[in-house]
Amino acid sequence: MTYDIDNVVFTDDPLLTDAMVRSAQAGCAGSGVTTPERHADGAWQVRRDIFLGQSIPG
């Protein structure tokens, strides 16, 4: 089965609204709300767990 997951939103985004957070938390395949982490080498990383089948009808 193939399906799309919802958007990823970043908790440090100054344009992020409460409505956007609620929508991302209720999305398909789990929450799309992520917190970026900066590593010592300057790279950024986020983790977005995907739960196959979550909030998918049928």
Short key terms for the protein model shown above:
single chain; 58 residues; alpha+beta; two-stranded parallel ribbon; two-stranded antiparallel sheet; 1 helix; 14% helix
Summarize the structure.
This protein is α+β, with helices and mostly antiparallel strands and 58 residues long. 14% of the residues lie in helices and 14% in strands. It is flat and about 45 Å long.
How many runs of DSSP E, i.e. beta strands?
4
Amino- and carboxy-terminal Cα gap: 11 Å
Widest sheet: strand order?
1-2
Per DSSP, what share of the residues sits in E-state strands of 2 or more residues? 5-15%
**Secondary-structure element pattern, one letter each:** EHEEE
Low-confidence stretches: none
What value does the average pLDDT take? 86
Structural class by helix and strand composition: alpha+beta
Describe the global form.
flat
Q: Helical percent range?
A: 10-25%
Please give the largest β-sheet: 2 strands, parallel
**Count of helical regions:** 1
Please state the CA-atom Rg, rounded to the nearest Å.
Answer: 13 Å
Please outline the helices and strands:
Elements: E1 9-10, H1 18-25, E2 33-34, E3 37-38, E4 44-45
Parallel strand pairs: 1-2
Antiparallel strand pairs: 3-4
Structure notes:
The protein has a domain of 37 residues. It has a two-stranded parallel sheet with strand order 1-2. It has one helix and four strands. The longest helix is centred in the middle third of the chain and has 8 residues. The termini are close together. The mean pLDDT is 86. By secondary structure, it is an alpha+beta fold. Helix 1 links the parallel strand 1 and strand 2. It is 14% helix and 14% strand.
